[in-house]
Amino acid sequence: MISANSRTRQLNGTCVSSVDMELFLHYSLIPSLFIILVLSFLQRREHRKQRDDTSHLLGNRFGIIIPLDFVGTFSNRWSYGIAFGATANKVMFLFSEGYQPLHIPQWAQAFVLLIGGMEVGLSHFPFFACLSSEFRLVSSILGFSYSLIWFAVTILYIIQCPHGQFLGKYETVMFYWPSLLCLAFLLGRFLHMFVKSLRVHLGWELQMEEKPFLEVHQAEHVKRLLRKAPLQETKKSWFQTRVYEWDPCFQFPSRMIGTTVLAFICLYLFIVIEFCMFMYVRDELDVFEGELENYIASMNQTGTLTPVILQVKELMNVSKGVWLVTILPASLTCVSYLFHILACYRKHMKRLWAGNKHFLPLKFHHPSSSKSVVAIARYSGWQIAYILWGYLIIHVVQSLCGLMIMYSLVLPVVHNQGLEMLQGLGIGTLTISIVLGLMTLQVWIATSFFLQPKMSTADKQKPLALNNRKAFHNFNYFLFFYNVLLGLGACLSRLLISCILGTWLIARIDRTIMQNGYEGADMGFSAWIGMLYVDHYHTNPVLVSFCNILITGHRERRLQQAIKYWCLNQSAGPRVSARSRTRWLLLQTLVNNPKLVMLRKSRPGHSSREFTQILLMGSES
Fold it and tell me: Chief subcellular site (predicted)?
């Protein structure tokens, strides 16, 4: 009798939805381009060059719109992050290289993927453009309409074919619920923007101030630096001491929040896809296992291949169980990496703000400016790819470790070979203990007999000065041949530890796995360093505060100058000619700055000093 899960798979194997999500992605470019044109028409160009062609007919319309500031955006961060999350399914579609609109040769795949990335970015561009546009009323209507189209099409696609061929019931829901949740959040966000902008338009609320040049947390950071007496430290909780301590003077930029949100959703989708592949492979292995059982039954369990077949069946069963069990630790490892990368970003940025570069390799103390600019464009995409591939590699390594544990500890007990297992484990442990003991004994002998005594009782260790040199030379000679064999084990352990650490930290883009001097070959780490430098040079609180002081002072001087001239122009009394007003201002300037008299040009027939005296006499009279 067919199981319910099998019936669901058969049912959905023939399910044909009227909505093709890949085709809808192509058609979504039409409203996307319309929204971009509308927002570009509303956006005015600040610096417009006069030309002799027909471009002057556009006036200062059709300015360049940006989706978001990847460097200095600290407001509306979670909205941008959720907008990134709405693109997760399409990002995974590109990651699996499923974008194949044309049949092209293998060498041109990079161009096809580039075109696919551009199309996905253009189709989701309105989400970001409507969030960042300063025309809140129009952008909220356009953003709500576009989000509603995507939400409705996705809902229709899920309703028509909710189940799948691998996971059975609600497989499509499991794939698309993160995007649906993000789209629902965007609908609520655009609705809130519309209500708020409408109240401002009707005069019920005051217009919000423009985005400040200096953020609040940056100003608080500078105040903390200028404070003479440090604040009294409060008692920290266990979470603040051991896990993470929130800093009110630091905020992650929108790029980091969006990258983290998208990485979480892509990791979830990757795990679901991997589980679907596991279910497919498991079903195929079950069919193969059934054929092996039929062969054993036909041979009445007396064939020469029967023991081998039983071992193969055992290996398949153990592998399936280990792979399924290690999904959780592998996923938790990558999730912890995402949080840890955020903590390392804050730690590294604070060190750079303080002028501390000792945590960086020497070759990264002065990185290339062009490579740093490219690095900030690469970082987000590479971080997501590193997490996904890192999860797969970590999962494979953990599965291999699980197989070793099963075959060395568990299966011997199942097969009533526990005593042999304990005997082998004891011999191995004793061998390793003796080797480590001999290495420790060498250190103790060197400390006790071959080093001179401490020069002071306060010294932590003996000085590096040889004692008992004849005994020392004999010690080296006789241990020379033993250390050759010991070095072989040390070399193998070095290789094993390097492989384990390299595979375990492959998802950590903030830490290089290369040896000292070869860090430049790690492209992911180079992108991380370049991104740090771009953020350091453009969002340093001290630098931003200094620029804010200059801008504020310049605006105040221009405002005072404008008020001063307005008062002169609007003063009551008889009208004064422009020439008389200019002479009066010239006289005021010369009175306040007497040294300028010697630097003035002389008029024809009058010296500058005589002309100045005439002005001064006229003013005194």
Answer: membrane
